[in-house]
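[job 4471] stage=fold_predict status=RUNNING
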Amino acid sequence: MGEYAFKKVLADKAVAICQDIEIDEVARALLAPEHAPAAFLRLLIDKALYADAVKFLARALPKREATWWACLCARSALGENPAQDMVRAVELAEQWVYKPTEEHRRQVFPAAQAAQFNHPASWAAMAAFWSGGSMAPPEAPVVPPAENLTGKAVAGAVMLAAVQTEPEKSETKYKRFLEQGIDIACGGTGRLEAKGTA
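[job 4471] inference complete, writing structure tokens
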């Protein structure tokens, strides 16, 4: 299998992406100055450093694509009878992805709060909220979010989705989520066909 063709990742070196993310010392020790983002991500996955791979890809993707990835993972964790607060948080985050207006960005914050930050849906919504604009109320002075906050929220959503239910299957879920994220990075939708289903 060749190297991933990352159409959506703008950085040409992995070190640039790793400047403001927290990855394990083992993962950081693997990072070489010449690594392209796709090569470093493959290395992390090959070494089964899935959480670090998620953090890296969440920061490497543009904010809109990263938030979409968080939405896909959050949806997979909703279960059969999800709480409406969780569903609304994901739906509003998706709405921002489809049409990233300031109005849509503002709408996700109360939904994220209502979902109480203990579910991937909350963090998918926060990924959208932290994508730009101001974190302060509209009438207050502008407080721009740090550039890496969307990536942190996306990583939180993806990692939480991997362990929210059936944590014993987290490795399988991590691999699946990373496949989705890689598909998005390569210009796809991330909507991979479920394996083993008709």
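[job 4471] summary: The chain has ten helices and no strands.
[job 4471] exit 0
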